[in-house]
Hints:
Layout: E1 2-15, H1 19-30, E2 35-39, H2 45-50, H3 52-69, H4 85-109, E3 113-116, E4 118-122, E5 126-130, E6 136-146, E7 150-152, E8 165-166, H5 168-171, E9 180-184, H6 188-199, E10 203-208, H7 219-231, E11 235-238, E12 242-248, E13 251-256, E14 260-264, E15 266-269, E16 273-275, E17 308-310, H8 321-336, E18 350-352, E19 357-362, H9 365-370, E20 375-381, H10 386-391, E21 397-404, E22 410-420, H11 427-435, H12 440-443, H13 455-464
Parallel strand pairs: 1-2, 1-6, 2-3, 6-17, 8-15, 9-10, 9-15, 10-11
Antiparallel strand pairs: 4-5, 5-6, 7-16, 12-13, 13-14, 18-19, 19-22, 20-21, 21-22
Helix pairs in contact: 1-8, 3-4, 3-6
Amino acid sequence: xxxxxxGMEFDLVVIGGGPGGYATALYGAAAGLSVAVVEKDKMGGxxxxxxxxxxxxxxxxxxVYRTVAGSNEFGILADQPTVDFxxxxxxxxxxxxxxxxxxxxxxxxxxxxxxxxTGTLHPGHRVTIAGADDETTEIxxxxxxxxxxxxxxxxxxxDADGRIVLTSDEVLxxxxxxxxxxxxxxxxxxxxxxxxLSDLGSEVTVLEALPGLLTGCDxxxxxxxxxxxRKRGIAVHTGVQVTGHEPSGSGTTVSFGExxxxxxxxxxxxxxxxxLTEGLLAEGTGVEIDPRGFVTVDPYQRTTAEGVWAxxxxxxxxxxxxxxxxxxxxxxxxxxxxxxxxxxxxxxPWAIYCQPEVAFAxxxxxxxxxxxxxxxxxxxxxxxxxxxxxxGETEGLVKVVAEKLPDGKxxxxxxxxxxxxxxxxxxxxxxLAVNWEATPDEVAQFVQPHxxxxxxxGETVLALTGRxxxxx
Length: 472
């Protein structure tokens, strides 16, 4: 049975209530548009419920564990800590629930109409919503935004069962931690899981098909993480294909490489995410899907159908919540005819919350050289930073890549790369420098407070001017 919702005509209909979708809705409503959002699960999407937020809560649990375990160094005498992961799980859920409640309240405050169910776009900007009660509601929008998100990828022979083989969805629902685990995939999510589980007592093996961890990160940053993983007993095998696994008892034996195996209690699949487009489009919409399943868009997020846009993980751009936010703003400004600059994906900020943390924006040294730039590079370790010494976390470095001018001086800053304590909170200045194409001479004029971790970025840039204080 199809029913028509009262007030079915909206300026903007968004299919998907994850970061890209709800950001588009909130920004559109703030601009005075009448907005509807269709979400089949809970508002907030993967990021809030099964991704960024719960994962970072567990990483914070690992951080607290490390702090307590090392407290004797500070004169705080405490017994060796133990982990009750069910308490962390409950805390995670409380945080998620609070944020979800706040988001729902914010959307109501903006007078955004929410529909629960699976949204499908039909020709003419009609959207049908299949609810849990087998009833279908139909609405329409002058403009429609596709923001249906993504789901974890799997690999042949590793069907997720929620017990032995887990995707990120199941890991974030664990009440107890496995004693041993194989993490398949050494990208950002895989390294976060490996770091967290190792810190909390699991024996961890990382299996990565590519030549190194954290593909896309600068080589010096990757070296910091790889070295830390080795020191902490995380076994890392790169350049290996995983060929299958053989369950036995409460665990399984994973085969990889040239006849190698590892027996573990659980396997975590961390091999990326695929766009979720099943059921998203009816026949005749004119929206093009590429061979990998992504919705095709231009730099302004327009699809191949007039008045239909797409943002977030459903398009082939970095799968980051803040990228979805930015794309939503581009869409609304474009709809309103306002001046708008498309997202420059080569300069977006990245934050990876393993231990040590990683953050970067702009070109790696290798990418800059490949693009034809002559470069000047300056690196400064956190070991010389007074604040890092005080907090007892000196592992890591700041690396700045700048264009080398004909006179040999440093021109615009092409990339800023950090690994170390709280670098995810320090990237702001580097991100601005990269995106404003600032030079070291310009950035070095800004005074860094002392003693802070962010001084290291200031020192690194100052050294690129040829007159460093503590480094040459």
